[in-house]
Amino acid sequence: MPDNRFYLDAPLTQGSTPSLSGEQLHHIRVMRKDIGDHIELVNGKGSLAKAQITAIDKRDAHLLIQESTSAPPPSRQVILAQALLKPKNLDLVIEKGTELGATAFWLFPADRSEKSSLSPNQQARLHHLAISALKQSGRLYLPEIALKPPLSEWTAPPMKAFFGDLSPEAPRFSPPDGDLLIFIGPEKGFSDEEIALLQGPLKGTGVRLSPNTLRAETAALCALSLVSN
After folding, report:
1. What CATH number is given to the structural domain containing 15?
2. Model pTM?
3. How far apart are CA 205 and CA 173, in angstroms?
4. Are residues 55 and 104 in the same domain?
5. How far is CA 181 from the centre of its chain?
6. Cα 196 vs. chain centroid, distance in angstroms?
7. Which of 182, 184, 205, 224 has its CA 20 to 30 A from that of 97?
8. Does the pLDDT of residue 3 top 80, yes or no?
9. 46 and 90 within one domain
10. Are 186 and 106 within one domain?
11. Rounded CA separation 44/41 (Å)
């Protein structure tokens, strides 16, 4: 990733004059950017723009967009349905999962999750981590991060679904083409009731991700890595 790539949640239209503030302005200062310097902008919606800094004040860096291009959306959806984890583990899943190409993270409280919800500050932190990973990886589409209810309230997804299964008879995960939904449990694993839901109403297929027993956060990243390959 170029060091001069910044995020702006706005249309990136050639000739427009947006500004950067907050965390992105701080990044401008850390990188010692000055008036006349050129930077890249992404908006997480497929646009990549080249802009020139025209002014910097206490609150904003003012820009002129000189070029703008757009990329088509990902050819398929790769959604990670992740049970809520300890904060540091969930941070890792969001950051590295974004780098590995997840198009959405659906976070839900599992029966054995230590937490049943996320605070607004935690949600904001995950969003910032995804933005940083977006810039780092060179992606142009920011993955959705959505809070979902417990599995007992879900309906069958309109795509192929898989879940991590430690059973010896479970087949190795061989990702098929097309949209995918991958369920990963919490640190203590899915409950028997959740496994029954995954195998039944949610039409999921249990798969082994590795010959070894993986931590929840490792399992999530292993699954996404197998899909990206």
Report:
1. 2.40.240.20
2. 0.94
3. 9
4. no
5. 14
6. 27
7. 205
8. no
9. no
10. yes
11. 10
